[in-house]
Amino acid sequence: MNPALNPTPLADETAASTLPLLRVNQLTRLFGHEKGCQDISFDLYPGEVLGLVGESGSGKSTLLSLLSGRTPPDRGSVQYRADHANWLDIYEAGEARRRQLLRTEWGFVEQNPRDGLRMSVSAGANIGERLMAQGARHYGQLRETAIHWLQQVEIDASRVDDPPRAFSGGMQQRLQIARNLVSKPRLVFMDEPTGGLDVSVQARILDLLRSLVRELDLAVILVTHDLAVARLLADRLLVMRRSRVVESGLTDQILDDPQHPYTQLLVSSVLQA
Ligand SMILES: Nc1ncnc2c1ncn2[C@@H]1O[C@H](COP(=O)(O)OP(=O)(O)O)[C@@H](O)[C@H]1O
Ligand SMILES: [Mg+2]
């Protein structure tokens, strides 16, 4: 049996690298019959990229919002293991702790970069903000780091003082990625990060994300309705339909040999497109 399909607790839980980063148990939030998500359980390991796929309205964004501490569940739990620390139940911890996680060890890349950037302050300030939240004060170093990160996301260093509203959509999305990754998060949530962009621009951002995720050994939970994006970035997939996970497993396995009729339909509709 494939261990990724059914992550059982490992025998030696003292080896930190083999412990999950996130433990999700029976997570449920419903807005109506089969609207939202229900009974979602999985473990996410450090450095792993998990894709949430499924048709529009299947509950992907709701689940992401519960996982990232933004919306309290009706029931179920999300436990996060901070570095060298015990499990933290993120909804038992206070709102302040969740916000702090989102500013430091976690990142959240919004589909629309305007929702994740401060549009009227400079690109450099957008990148520096999380570092300042972590206590960085040295202006020269902040600026140097900002320029380094602009280059990482292929934005010319000369744009450091420009506000994001002067950028194209693709540049704004790359800036949002830099703003999130600068604090070296361990876990990054992304909701359709290339969904609003032209296809040519998407390809470049996907390439960039792929190399950054590897380089930084990031764990990522990625919502996408685009199976090509899932194929490119995700190690493992949860397939959602009407608020439930109907299939889960390794990305290649699911896309090449889908078991559930709904997944078969999803995969075949992409092939025909
Ligand atoms: N805040 C909300 N209030 C009421 N219904 C909601 C809310 N958020 C999502 N829904 C409903 O829950 C279902 C799942 O939505 P969503 O999680 O956004 O799906 P997806 O991201 O897969 O397209 C949809 O039917 C949506 O209309
Ligand atoms: Mg959505």
Task: Tell me what the structure shows.
This protein has 273 residues and is an alpha/beta fold. The chain is built from 10 helices and 10 strands. It is 37% helix and 23% strand. Strands 6-7-8-3-9-10 form a 6-stranded mixed sheet, with helices on both faces. Strands 2-1-4-5 form a 4-stranded antiparallel sheet, with helices on one face. β7, α7 (199-216) and β8 form a beta-alpha-beta unit. Residues 1-14 have low confidence and may be disordered. The structure holds adenosine-5'-diphosphate (ADP) and magnesium ion.
Short description:
The protein is α/β, with parallel strands linked by helices and 273 residues long.
Q: How many separate helices?
A: 10
Strand order in the sheet with the most strands = 6-7-8-3-9-10
The total strand number stands at 10
Major sheet details: 6 strands, mixed
Q: List the helices and strands in order.
A: EEEHEEHEHHHHEHEHEEHH
For the record, give the distance between the C-alpha atoms at the N and C termini, rounded to a whole number.
33 Å
Give the low-pLDDT segments. Answer: 1-14
Secondary structure category: alpha/beta
Provide the residue-averaged pLDDT: 91
Name the hetero compounds present: adenosine-5'-diphosphate, magnesium ion
Percentage of residues in DSSP E strands: 15-25%
* Shape category: globular
Helix content: 25-40%
Rg over CA atoms, rounded to whole Å, is 19 Å
